[in-house]
Amino acid sequence: MFEQARRRKSLPALAGATLLVALQVMAPAWPGTAAAATLPDPTRPTAYQPTTRSVNLKLETILYSDARRVAVINGKALTEGESIGSATVLQINKDTVRLRRGDSTLRLNLQRPTIRQEP
Predict the structure, then answer these.
(1) pLDDT at position 97 over 80
(2) What is the radius of gyration, based on Cα positions, of the chain?
(3) Spatial CB neighbours of 80, under 8 Å, sequence gap ≥ 6
(4) Tens digit of each residue's pLDDT (9 = 90 or more) over 18-47
(5) Residue 111 contacts by C-beta under 8 Å, 6 or more apart in sequence?
């Protein structure tokens, strides 16, 4: 009688251990894991070349003072040396920002709104 009760208690433990082992075996190829990211996509054509999209950069505002210089580009606050996409901020001036993207240098000008005055 005691033997049957002990067997009943050990069956759930055995099932849990089996499940744990199965998950450990499957985990390396589970979607979202590092190992799954390295697996090639079997449906991708052999001549596939990923393209890099060029992001349009819009200079929204500049905070310029002796203490710090911050440029807001595409809604992201950046200081000199920081990057947005593939572009790195080289220099922040009062109304311009110089960036490097690959081998080229870009210059973004701060667009000041024109205020219409009544005659």
Answers:
(1) yes
(2) 29
(3) 69, 89, 90, 91, 92
(4) 655 555 555 555 555 555 566 777 887 877
(5) 59
The Cα–Cα gap between 60 and 81 comes to 18
Tokens of 34: 């590092």
Per the CB < 8 A criterion, the answer to whether 99 and 89 are in contact is yes
For the record, the structure tokens of 85 come out as 């996409």
- Alpha-helix residue ranges (DSSP H) falling in the chain: 2-26, 34-38
What 3-8 contacts at long range (C-beta under 8 Å, 24+ apart), as own/partner pairs, is none
**Would you state the structure tokens that stand for residue 19, as one six-digit string?**
């499940």
